[in-house]
Amino acid sequence: MYVLVLILKAMNEIALVALLSQGVLFVLAGAKRDNNFVYFILKTLTMPAMKFARLITPRVIIDQHIGWVALFLLLLAEVLLIVAKISLHLEAAGAA
Prior knowledge:
By secondary structure, the protein is an all-alpha fold. 79% of the residues lie in helices and 0% in strands.
């Protein structure tokens, strides 16, 4: 179980870094970002998080804000995975 939490945490961290990098590149590249190969790679990496965020949000939320929702969900998942990792670690050490 501990290994599963570590794998999920690593995947979540990759998605977080990709989403943050995509946001920085969005600001720096401006309108030419769609022709940028690195932006395309980051967009591909963050696509599952964006689609999940779009799936769970109501249609009132506009598409420009889905990135913020995805960031919030990834940060929430990171906190939950950290808590699970600590809990499993303490359980294995016999402290819990």
